[in-house]
Amino acid sequence: MIYTITLNPAIDYVVKVNSFEKGGINRSQYDYKEAGGKGINVSRVLQQFGQASTALGFVGGFTGKFITDSLTEMKIPYDFVQLQQDTRINMKIKTETDETEVNGLSPTIGEAEYQALLAKLKHLNEGDIVVLAGSLPHSLYKAVYREMVSLLHEQGALAVLDTSGTPLKEAIQASPAFIKPNHHELAELFEEEVREDHDIVRLANRLHQENGINHVLVSMANAGAIYVGDGGIFKLHAPKGKAVHSVGAGDSAVAGFIYKWNDTKDARKAATYAIAAGSATAFSKTLCTQAETDVLLEQVEVIDLSQR
Ligand SMILES: Nc1ncnc2c1ncn2[C@@H]1O[C@H](COP(=O)(O)OP(=O)(O)OP(=O)(O)O)[C@@H](O)[C@H]1O
Ligand SMILES: O=P(O)(O)OC[C@@]1(O)O[C@H](CO)[C@@H](O)[C@@H]1O
């Protein structure tokens, strides 16, 4: 069974304006609200691929109800811990040329609520895949992902991680099976500048060799991604197209990787599907469908870097 954990979900309030005037009154051309947060997005894309998953994490208040209602409508199972405070709202302001994000403050998670989530994880076991994704609510300590990855591994479940900053630095000590930092997050992790592909390969290889992470997929937006792991070392060029809405492209890549990996246990196929899914999301108004992903699959160019 696949589970996603979103400790800090959000309603994504997407607003399209003609041009954004700082300090002025901006009126939207169109806007819409979606159940968001990285783990929830992974569940949504997996659902598009016909792959069931259960969404876990914390939700609260009227915003939390919006999220559970949306998931019910999408037929995505969930088992959240309920909070007193409201789930945050993240605003994504789009113009023709750029995207500005204002992500809301997280609600407070108490110790009892955190323990209630851990109790749910204790039921997971051998063969389960668990995706831990997104930022941490401010009230949780920075090592919670590390603690969760260790717990999951003790139970024989496979942990997938997509986060950044100190939570990532902590959690890689527990050797998650798959991580998907983007190149900025990789640079921040090692406190190094990442300019060339060989910088990425070297740092991703350290994560693979020294931290025992089986699969490291470093995404680079329109430049695609570099994969280093059990399946070798290769660069994946992203399909070309017009970026319409790139929020969730990274989550779609995570979902694409897990979906194909689960089916084939072939890292190259999984990474290729990941890039097609990420690009399909970037090219559409919301998260990708399977048909949109499949159309792009042949356009992902894979170049072997292991001999260089
Ligand atoms: N402009 C784009 N054109 C083509 N593909 C894109 C574009 N932006 C993103 N992608 C695809 O999505 C994948 C993930 O994108 P990115 O590296 O931006 O992830 P991310 O930083 O985690 O994104 P986010 O936080 O917005 O979800 C890329 O590897 C690529 O395949
Ligand atoms: O603040 P975080 O947890 O880092 O990211 C949250 C978020 O930006 O990530 C998703 C896109 O990846 C959105 O649905 C959501 O609003």
Automatic annotation (TrEMBL):
Location of the Carbohydrate kinase PfkB domain: 10-290
Q: Which UniProt keywords apply?
A: ATP-binding, Kinase, Lactose metabolism, Nucleotide-binding, Transferase
Q: Which PROSITE patterns match?
A: PFKB_KINASES_1
Q: What is its EC number?
A: 2.7.1.144
Provide the GO MF annotations for this entry. 1-phosphofructokinase activity
> What is its pathway?
Carbohydrate metabolism; D-tagatose 6-phosphate degradation; D-glyceraldehyde 3-phosphate and glycerone phosphate from D-tagatose 6-phosphate: step 1/2
Q: Which Pfam families match?
A: PfkB
Listed under catalytic activity are: beta-D-fructose 1-phosphate + ATP = beta-D-fructose 1,6-bisphosphate + ADP + H(+); D-tagatofuranose 6-phosphate + ATP = D-tagatofuranose 1,6-bisphosphate + ADP + H(+)
Report the top EC class in one word: transferase
Q: Which family does it belong to?
A: Belongs to the carbohydrate kinase pfkB family.
Q: What does this protein do?
A: Catalyzes the ATP-dependent phosphorylation of fructose-l-phosphate to fructose-l,6-bisphosphate.
Name by which UniProt lists this protein = Tagatose-6-phosphate kinase
- This protein's species is Gracilibacillus salinarum
Q: What is the name of the gene encoding this protein?
A: pfkB
